[in-house]
Amino acid sequence: MSLTHEAALSPSAGRRFRAYTAKHLDEFTARAGLAEDERLAARAVATVLPFRVNSYVVDELIDWAAAPDDPIYRLTFPQADMLPKEDVARIADLLRKDAPKKEINQAANEVRARLNPHPAGQMDLNVPKLGPEDPLEGVQHKYAETVLFFPKQGQTCHAYCTYCFRWAQFVGEPDLKFASSEIDHLVDYLHHHPEVTSVLLTGGDPMIMGGGVLARYIEPLLKVETLESIRIGTKSLAYWPQRFVTDPDADDTLRLFEKVVASGKNLAFMAHFSHPAEMAPDLVREAVRRVRDTGAVIRTQAPLIRTINDDPTVWESMWRTHVRHGMVPYYMFVERDTGPQDYFAVPLARAYDIFRDAYKNVSGLARTVRGPSMSATPGKVCVDGVTEVGGEKLFVLRFLQARDPELVAKPFFAKYDEKATWLFDLEPGLGATHFPYETPPPADASDLVEDPAVL
Length: 455
Description:
Radius of gyration: 23 Å
Largest sheet: 11 strands, mixed
Number of helices: 14
Structural class: alpha/beta
Helix content: 25-40%
Strand order of the largest sheet: 5-6-7-8-9-10-11-12-13-14-15
Distance between the termini: 83 Å
Number of strands: 15
Shape: globular
């Protein structure tokens, strides 16, 4: 690995990390040109959903001359219409009256409870156990081969995306948090479950941790012989590339990556890039180079987000840029059924058109990408196309992953619905009474009556 810095970096490259939170929000929304009532509405939304941004995003990524319409601004700053008008108005009124913090928090919690804070059963359906009555905290085991681990010290990010499906981790409510500091428990679980070949460290963002803390979580996993790969889900390349270039422990972190690769395990760096602007700074490209030099493979993914990247030219540009810099396009996700989904969601029919229009214009090296994919309760469901059979217009769907492995890669059909934004909005097609992952409905009572002629 080369630890030299080859790129001509911007003056902000070596600055220390500085985060901005809700207390700074009014200053930035004023800079974006919002009127006083609009700024109050943004504060009301930030009372319900988390807000955090940092100096790199503010100084290097946001085009303030285009704000509030700039895509990176919309990606990181709350919008008044992300929540129902009546909820925003209620909380804005409390803020205007300088109501007690307890009253404001109570109102915010009531709104959060209606936003499906833990989609796909992540607080119960996916949680494994060390024993019959001993749930493994901070661990999800949804698919046989893959376990997700949420390090306790990684339950924040360098900046929060407004669409984030893990928003509940960041709002300061203990009942909504999902994390663990017990890596030994995970290792014990892996020894008892050799079918698990991949561990994903997620959060939050594991790369918010210092190199020493990160090593305490990763190094014990290197001793699990049945483990083939370690994944790190992160937005750090986009939101704080300094983490791999100029931060004090950048080199130590990269040496840890080298250690993983030298152990014979694949290190997959699952990088979230939501817009081409995030790849523009030289600092990002230098960070990508340094990570790749360790032997890690960078795979890129993002959800399709209305008002931010719902344009095939945006995705084509992203995928081309990622391939040019040695990264592997991996997933286009459908915005999940949580938080402000109604604001950001793109109908599945439109999502498929965007994916196809971008996909058809890139080379085979970028066609490693899969999508549009829904990470729903029964598994990852991909919209493979739209077709017509016997005069019925249909979505062609396929499980990329499933709780029931027998469902993987088997196509199934749903009635075409131009307004549907999620799997559970769809109905079975071709006369089916249920989808393959559903329990068949009980037979009609009339079907159970014996033929009188036989009596």
